[in-house]
Every structure is written in C-alpha cells, then in structure tokens.
Design goal:
mainly alpha, about 260 residues
C-alpha cells in the first residue's frame, strides 16, 4: 500500500510538471500567434499604403501626360499661328517693297533722283527690319540704288551701293551654307541663319533660284560699273536727256 501511494504521488508530480510545461508552451504559442498577427496586420497596412501610392502615382502620371499633351498641342497651335502671322508679314513687306520700288522708278523717270533715292533708302530700312540685313530683298534694293546713281552718272556712289549689295549677298550665302551644314547632322528642321526669316518653306524665304538670280544681277551690275571712263561717259550721255534728266527708257529697274 505504501509503495502504491509513492508511485501515485510520483505519477501525480510528473503529470503536474507536464501540465505546467504544456501550459507554458501554449502561452508561448499564443504570444507568438499574437505577434505574427500583429506583423501580418502591419504588412497588410503597408501593402495597402503602397498600393494606394502606386494608384495615386498612376493617376498623377496620367494627368501629367494629359497636361503635357495639351501644352504641346497649344504650342503647336501657337507656332502655326506665328508662322501664318509671319508669312502674312513677309507678303505684306514684299508687296510694300515692290510698290516703293515702282514709286522710285517713276520718280527717277521724271528726274526726281533725290526723292527716288529717299524712297529706296526707306525701302532698305523696312526690308532690313522685316527680313534681316543680309536678305536678298535688301541686296536687290541696293542694286536699284546703284542703277539710280548710274542713271545720274554718279559712278562713285553707284559702286558704293554695289559693294553694299555684294557684301550682303555674300553674307546671306555664307549663313545659308552654315545653316544647311548644321542641319545635315540633326533631324530638326534647319533655320535660315537670319534673325527675321521664317523656317524653310514656300512663304518663309526666297528660294535658291531667286538667290542665284540675285548673285547674277550683282555680277552684271558690277561689270557694267567697272567699265573704262570713256565707256562710262558714253553711258552717262546716253542716259541723260537735253535737260540733264534721264530718258524714260533709262530709269532704274523695277522694285523687288
């Protein structure tokens, strides 16, 4: 009986120890589960925050793309409006230049050389502001001034105007060549190298044919003004009438 009682006490002690250990393990497990649940909640909250951030970033990207598209569209419209405005300005300046040149021809034909020269100089200033100082339109008006002085027999001033025309035509040719060389290495549209000229186009500037004709006219004028004194005297006497005025057929050329 005594040994049975000792065995029962021993078993009871072992069961109590096992129960205590089990209780402790369950408590540790519960604590771990609680910690894991808290971590999962944190991860879920962080994931939700990241997802919300990504969604907001996508929305902002869409808005930014739309805004940039609108800005690009407005810029294109603005550039097109400017191109049309400048093209109209070019046509207006050319028409006005032609009218001034024709007026100078009429004044020259009537012997009013000083008034004709004033009109042509105003034409030069107008074209310089509109097209730039090296444009063929400006060089052409200087040619007309040279012809006006030639009609008066003033060869020295005629040569001065020829030099002005030649130097501007040469500068234009150099600027055009430099712009073409620069444009050949890029995909962008080439400029003309002038401050007031439009980009390459039908209405923006004179074409290569007009530039070539301008250079040819310069060479012809220079050649005619480089004749000897006897030939120049004969030209002057043929150009002047009995009253010292130019004959109707020897006036300066038509305006540009």
């Amino acid at each position: 009986t005594e040994s049975l009682r000792e065995m029962v006490d021993l078993l009871r002690g072992q069961l109590e120890k096992e129960y205590a250990m089990r209780t402790k393990a369950e408590a540790a497990l519960l604590k771990t589960k609680t910690r894991v649940a808290g971590r999962e909640k944190q991860l879920q909250e962080r994931s939700d925050s990241i997802e919300a951030t990504v969604t907001e970033a996508a929305r902002l990207t869409t808005d930014l793309t739309h805004t940039l598209s609108e800005v690009a569209s407005r810029q294109n419209e603005s550039l097109e409006q400017q191109r049309i405005k400048y093209a109209d300005r070019v046509r207006l300046c050319r028409d006005l230049g032609a009218q001034l040149g024709a007026s100078a021809d009429l004044l020259s034909a009537s012997g009013q050389y000083e008034a004709a020269e004033g009109v042509l100089l105003s034409n030069v200033r107008m074209k310089e502001r509109a097209f730039g100082g090296t444009h063929p339109e400006v060089a052409s008006t200087f040619q007309q001034l040279a012809r006006l002085c030639e009609a008066q027999g003033d060869w020295r001033r005629a040569l001065v105007y020829v030099e002005q025309s030649s130097s501007r035509a040469l500068d234009y040719s150099r600027q055009k060549e430099a712009a073409e060389l620069s444009a050949s290495g890029t995909d962008a549209a080439a400029g003309t190298g002038e401050a007031h000229l439009l980009p390459v186009g039908e209405e923006g500037r004179l074409d290569a044919t007009t530039a070539a004709a301008t250079e040819a006219a310069l060479e012809a004028t220079s050649s005619s003004l480089s004749t000897n004194g006897e030939g120049g005297a004969r030209s002057a006497s043929g150009a002047n009438g009995p009253n010292g005025r130019a004959d109707s057929g020897s006036g300066s050329g038509s305006g540009s």
